[in-house]
Amino acid sequence: MAQSALLKSSIAKKYWMALTGLFLCLFLAGHLAGNLQLIFGDALQFNQYALFMTSNPAVKLLSYLTYFSILFHAVDGILLTIQNKKARPIGYAKSNPAANSGFASRNMAVLGTLILVFIVTHMVNFWAKMHFDKKMPVYATTVEMMGQKQDLYVTTSGTYIPVTQVAKDSKEAEEIGAQLYIDHGKDFYNTQAKIKVGEGYKDLHKITFDFFKSKAKLFGAIPNEGLVFTILYVLCMGVLAFHLWHGFQSAFQSLGINNKFTPAIKTFGKLFAVIVPILFAIIPLYIHFVK
Amino acid sequence: MKLDSKIPEGPIAEKWTNHKNHLKLVAPNNRPKIDIIVVGTGLAGASAAASLGEMGYNVKAFCFQDSPRRAHSIAAQGGINAAKNYQNDGDSTYRLFYDTIKGGDYRAREANVHRLAEVSANIIDQCVAQGVPFARDYGGLLDNRSFGGTQVQRTFYAAGQTGQQLLLGAYSALSRQIGLGRVQMFNRHEMLDLVKVDGKARGIIARNLITGEIERHSAHAVIIASGGYGNVYFLSTNAMGSNVTAAWKVHKQGAFFANPCYVQIHPTCIPVHGTNQSKLTLMSESLRNSGRIWVPKKKEDAEAIRAGKLKPTQIAEEDRDYYLERRYPAFGNLVPRDVASRAAKERCDAGFGIEANDTNEGVYLDFSSEIISKGKQAAYAKGNHNPTQEEITILGKQWLEEKYGNLFTMYQKITDENPYETPMKIYPAVHYTMGGVWVDYNLQTNIPGCFVAGEANFSDHGANRLGASALMQGLADGYFVLPYTVSDYLADEIRTGKISTDLPEFAEAENRVKEQINKFLNNNGTKSVDHFHKKLGLIMWNKVGMARNEQGLKEAVAEIAALREEFHKDVYVPGSADELNPELEKALRVADFMELGQLMAMDALQRKESCGGHFREEYQDAEGETLRDDENFKFVGAWEYKGSDISQEVLHKEELKYEYIKIAARNYK
Amino acid sequence: MASKKTININLKIWRQKNAKEKGSMETYKLDNVSTDSSFLEMLDQLNEQLVNERKEPVAFDHDCREGICGMCSLYINGRAHGPDTGITTCQLHMRMFNDGDTIYVEPWRSKAFPVIKDLVVDRSAFDRIQQAGGFVSVNTSGRTIDANATPVPKTDADKAFEAAACIGCGACVATCKNGSAMLFVGAKVSQYALLPQGRVEATERVLNMVRQMDEEGFGNCTNTGACEIECPKGISLENIARMNREYLKASLK
Q1: Among this protein's residues, is B337 annotated catalytic?
Q2: Which of B236, B290, B406, C6 is deepest in the core (most CB within 10 A)?
Q3: B-C interface: how many C-beta pairs under 8 angstroms?
Q4: What's the pTM value of the predicted model, to 2 decimals?
Q5: Which segments in chain C show pLDDT lower than 50?
Q6: Where are the domains of chain C?
Q7: Is the dihedral of CA B190, B513, B586, B603 positive or negative?
């Protein structure tokens, strides 16, 4: 009984919502710290961070846990919502919910769904590009040497390779007789020996900046898509703020923590719910309008 | 027929123990063969059903509410008495016994009351074991407070919701038995008749209030715990659904109805506000610890107040008549309930009432003196030895809020007046009925197999009940008396076998019920049930209320009989029999109230004395106090039903013997 | 009393013949309602009017009319027990309304509380939850240990009382957007969990009561806090948290 109860019962579902939700709050904090390098760090630093986040085994484990949490949180949330809807087959002709509860608390499912949509598009725009896009640029820095500007790839071992020496792929390398070419989107290969001689950084920084600064037409119709993306991103952070506003302290209640620390938890939760999304939102605004 | 109270022989303190030792038993293996019906799930009914279920009997419990937890025991506020002597102030079983007999104005059975006092301590143990959250002190032990009519602190309480907590305790025990399948619960069912087979109670006819189905239920014993009949007055502190039907149907089947005229009128209720009022709300007796009761000394002031030209706060101290303090200097505002109620009525009848309703009935319960005295104390306690008037008032109000906050809020919600600023208006209201179905020492009526417990029986409170004793009696009957005495009766039933509901007696009873229902539904009269109930209430309140006299009672008997006839001729009951039909439910109940009301007037008429809640204006002393006639009326008046003409009922007398308590006049001066 | 004011109102009331038939909102006009009347007295007045017009009166649950039995329900103008806090419907007074107001009166809405007729719903799901574990398994006995043998810290006793003050009216379920019964169950679980007498069976109790609660078809708690606001007895959300704790402990055992 006890085992199955831990999965099926209404209360257990709430534990899982709370645990995954709180874990995702931790993820948000980490993610935010990384993203802030878009403002406070340079491109290399950011790309190094991006590489670390995609390659470090411990981080990988965490990221799988994050994917799982998002999915579980969403699926569990949907199940709960369906059950909750079933619990009241006939609604009220007149209802005045604002008299006894907050907007966020009543709309967690809607807010959560919006956030899920956001996460999916967000991952398509950045995560999928980072992982799967063959056209993902490799980070290169520009240096001035003897009055001449030169673009150099930076390898993970800290060495530099002039961009002009590197072909896009082995085919092009043979055609133009370049010494090196790029494979796997980031690895430098010797054209003759076909051996890996170094590794570059995928330029997530550039992808991000281009995304929010793009002047292209969205769907071929809406001009200045970078501005549209920025606005949408900021709106999504607003949605996230509402979700966290209720979700953070609610998780503690679901886990049975309601004691003398509860006022402090509530205050912290509300600060978290406001500050984290604002900081997230500042980044695209900064990129679009300042950079 | 001679009434046999079956009081056991022997010294009073040993009667119950000896009696228990000699009662017959039913072996555990035989109990599942025996069915018991319990009607009502208040303190007495729920505790009886739970206890009998635990023992292994098949119990069927009935209540008309949607859940057994709703029974009106839940509304008791103050507390429950028990002779625990935890406060070391000289309490004992004997003291509780004595106080209850004296409080009842020497009209209760000694043996019953002593048993009640004996088992009172067990009740507290039992309830604590069940998880009832009584108030405790900082040492973790149970707290007590004191109540009217006693000089010790023996009242256990749970804030102002003691009845609720005790009922929920009994309900939890009952729920456990329902969960285990030993008690079958029939909620939203109303008992509409008792079925007798060969003179013994063998079952009931009940109406499923949702489907309207008339059901037959058989059993080897029937326990009635359906509460009191205060709603005969229409306005009372009882719940809207509280009714006498179960008890009255038992009476009509031959059980005697004892002392119907003993009604307790509680002095501190919120006065009537208008003709649409449906019920009266009690303000706890505990308020009389802090409030002073008064009316204006001058009639013109009272008139000005009623006209809204004067406010009570504008009446100077010397123009106020603190009539309880004036008449009863020793007890002052803390005289027993019946005394306080009558005194209020006396003032209002004399034209000093302050409420601007049809009857001008209302007096003030004023907390301003308490605000000042407690405010001063609080200021001193804070080291402020020279507080300003303002500081005193603020602190005094804080003290009141701490002590009575919830009551004050309740008062304000109902009346829209702030009792911190202006005195409360209060007036007596019908609260509890000491009379009920006559039972012997075993709580069995004169119908074998039919037991009656709690407020529905007459047994323990004489002519006036003390505060915090109703809860005690309900639980004593259900937990600690009935399990023994019912088993004793059932010991002879182990060979009876299942009782068939196809017996002609069941069919007959069912037909009686169906006939009555059909008659109401096809009556096609012109007036609602409430119309008649309110009329009955007015007659009862005016002529069989706080003060009665021969002429009024004679008029009441005639008026009620006439009203009853009119009711049956002209009542309109909408809807049908096979659905949830609250109007029909009310009609069936009011039909019984009409008959009972007449009997109450007859009982009050025959009792040519004043005692406890029964005050006959002809029988008072020079100072207006009750004048008992122990020579001629030291008996229980038990009425026998003789057909639909109530005036034909026959009075039987059970002589009360006082062997252990010296009978004396009650004096609270 | 002081006022003596009367108002005229319009009522929109849910009428439903029985559990099987469909219901609808019907409109009624009621004049000369004293503002000193309670809400239920106003409904009495409406029913008197309907009976006199030979129409079927409105069925609604009520009993004690002093806010303790928990029998009255009613969703009034979009709120459980109407537009006042800390009270039941029977304690709601007409002075909360104005002349000419239209007042919506609906039954509790919950799958677990099916409508029986008009405004009357079946709340026996609460009874079944109680039967599943809302008790201490102690038989009636004249030989229990003395009530003072086990001291209970005053704070625990007080908290247990506050939880036990629940009147089982179902306002929490009615007002919860999810139709969750967790405040009711949490209060019961808490009362016993806080007392030494109840601790013995704490594990079984919370598992059984929650299982029954889920079987009855109540929704899940999403901590909106609406129940706490609308509860006529002010039962705290702390009780739900305590139940969550107890359930976690019990599940891990």
Answers
A1: yes
A2: B236
A3: 239
A4: 0.94
A5: 1-3
A6: 6-106, 123-137+151-252
A7: negative
